[in-house]
Design goal:
468 residues; alpha/beta; FAD/NAD(P)-binding domain; Enolase-like, domain 1; 7-stranded mixed β-sheet; 5-stranded antiparallel β-sheet; globular
Length: 468
Amino acid sequence: MKYDIIVIGAGSGGLNIASFMNTLKLKVLLVEKHLVGGDCLNYGCVPSKALISIANTVSRAREAEAYGIHTVGGVDMKKIAAAIRERQDMIRVHENPDFFREKGIHVEIGSPYFISEKAVAVNDISYTARRIVIATGSRPAVPLIEGLDTVDYLTNETVFTNKTLPDRLLVIGAGPIGIEMAQAYRRLGSKVTVLDIADRVLPKEDRDISGAVLAFLQKEGIDFRLGATPVRFLNKKSLLVRDPDKTEETLSFDRVLVAAGRKLNIDGLDLETAGIRVKNNKILLDKYLRTTNKRVYCCGDAAGDFLFTHWAEYQASVIIRNMIGPFKTSLNRGLAAWVTYTDPEVATFGLWCTAMEERGIKYRTVVVPLADVDRAVCEGLKDGLLKLHIAKGKIMGGTLIARNAGEIVGELIAFAALKIPFSRLYNRIYPYPTMSRINRKAVQQYLGQKLTPRNKGILKLLYKLFNR
């Protein structure tokens, strides 16, 4: 059977491409191995944010005791699991096979593989297309730890259907998934230990940001064993660990959550049959997201870049433009942005300091503590900061640690993406008191740094000149 385009994978990237091409009345085949909606809807963004929201509600209830309201009892994990599923189902109404079939997209559920440079087979039927997109996502990477196979461990694919709250939870991995779930389970009532061979949490963030996150998580009672190596599981309830000083100790637990990275879903596709080269377990791509077979593109987690739903959406838009336009568009990594959904949230965007230094970009950094924002003080939310990097008067990147940081930082992302001079933020009125006034504080600080004695002298002279 012949199609205009075949999309392999019905996650964020694949659905965006299939849906857009379908609006152009092109003949589209969408192939999904497991569940439409990809990792985000089924095992990632949606259920994790639902769980985090519930855990935060529990935490707020406990905080109310400081004002004389006392809470009793514990959480019901069965009800929590049901609530998570209910919220997923609300989104699944427009992310399921029949929904897309009704739109005119041919949807096949099965395990696809390439049979030539322009054809794939699914369920013993072969399909050809002008262009093919690989958007097969990723799955949890399971570390090679002796005895792990004897432990009933959780991953992001099973933790959201968990119906029992463990007294002691061991989290292996201090990346975004690990610390989000660590805080959520701590707030639900578990004693939580986080173990990672790295010497800090969120290793992709600046060290001062990682340190700030570690501090507020430790304040909640989460135990961290950083720079430690898991040696072997002694039984189903204990793990032998080698600490940074080479001493060994035994950690006890009731459940284990493995959050030690991701593995790309590119095996089983018979890529070599299509002339698609793989190096170091990653598909080789050019700057236009084409594989070594120029008929085939790749986006989303399978592309091995930033593993975020919104980055997959962005990559999908790049692929669409490159398929339908005469001029090619390449990825702009300076547009990258992500949020770690702890409380407070950590929202990062733009270029890292290391990237700017590698490019020889001279920049200035502005840091505003959240404690300087009146609204944060009113709400007792002083654990946080805004860190911005400015070059040639424009925002290059930064990080905000604050409650709802992902919502507040959108204005700064827009200024960075559109290359609007940072000083123009000063012309905007920020209602008082709001958390977004931290942006105004940052631009005030930046403009204040430019008020050198010479500039002050000039302004003083101008004042006297025009106010006689």
